[in-house]
Amino acid sequence: MKAGLSIEGLRVVFDDFVAVDDVSIRVEPGQSFGIVGESGSGKSTLLRAVGGLAPKSAGVISLIGAPDLPEPGSRAFRRRVQMVFQDPYGSLHPRQTVDRILAEPLAIHGIGDADRRIQQALDEVGLGTGFRFRYPHQLSGGQRQRVAIARALILEPQILLLDEPTSALDASVQAEVLNLLEDMRRRHGLTFVMVSHDLAVVTYLCDQLMVMQRGRSVEKLSADDLAQSRVAEPYTQRLMTASIGFRRDRTETF
């Protein structure tokens, strides 16, 4: 069964700083949902709060759409909800081989048949047996991110939290990883919640999205609305303008 995600009135506070302020979203089972905004808008903190990596000051986080849904923060919840981080090098233990990195979540959750599962996970992300006993420093950035995706998928989760999973990669490698993620979503019926500052990436991978500014939800719209510039809020319009890039107003002669 597929599972979705419900967040109601989420608030995250660090000392006196409000990082996420009364945000609510509902991601239907099998849907791909994007969260965009400038740096410091609270989008990554929201994702970390769902994964139990940031303190939740208020609000309710729950799974929807499947029977026997676990409580947030429990081991069963973490098995169903996995996260892929922005930096593929920083999220992998530098002194562990790929084999050890993939075996660890299986051991934590008491899942057997590790040899078959590790090989299957590597095959699914396009890495063969030759990568199994390499260390992270022996891999390219794209290969490291594939290992991180394999580590998330090896527990057979229902929801993937993606924290800017391609922003640290070259443009050509970004396309490969995005295509891999979309293929995984369709093949396994996964639900995605993806954070990005790149509107083109979100439009490509997500069905619906939310725009955040200063910890609050500014606007919710479909990816098609964003692609067609059907936006209502000035902040969203400014984000779209910034995503186009710098343009010279006049021709300069040097």
Automatic annotation (TrEMBL):
EC number(s) on file: 7.4.2.10
Any one GO molecular function term: ATP binding
GO biological process annotation, one example: transmembrane transport
Domain of life: Bacteria
Record's bilayer topology term: Peripheral membrane protein
Alphabetical UniProt keywords: ATP-binding, Cell inner membrane, Cell membrane, Membrane, Nucleotide-binding, Translocase, Transport
Reactions catalysed, as given in the entry: glutathione(out) + ATP + H2O = glutathione(in) + ADP + phosphate + H(+)
Main location: membrane
One GO cellular component term noted in the UniProt record for this chain: plasma membrane
Limits of the ABC transporter domain: 5-239
Alphabetized InterPro entries for the sequence: AAA+_ATPase, ABC_transp_ATP-bind, ABC_transporter-like_ATP-bd, ABC_transporter-like_CS, P-loop_NTPase
Protein location: Cell inner membrane; Membrane
A UniProt-annotated Pfam family: ABC_tran
Keyword Repressor listed: no
Recorded family membership: Belongs to the ABC transporter superfamily. Glutathione importer (TC 3.A.1.5.11) family.
Quaternary structure annotation from Swiss-Prot or TrEMBL: The complex is composed of two ATP-binding proteins (GsiA), two transmembrane proteins (GsiC and GsiD) and a solute-binding protein (GsiB).
General function of this protein: Part of the ABC transporter complex GsiABCD involved in glutathione import. Responsible for energy coupling to the transport system.
UniProt protein name: Glutathione import ATP-binding protein GsiA
Organism per entry: Alsobacter soli
Source organism phylogeny: Bacteria, Pseudomonadati, Pseudomonadota, Alphaproteobacteria, Hyphomicrobiales
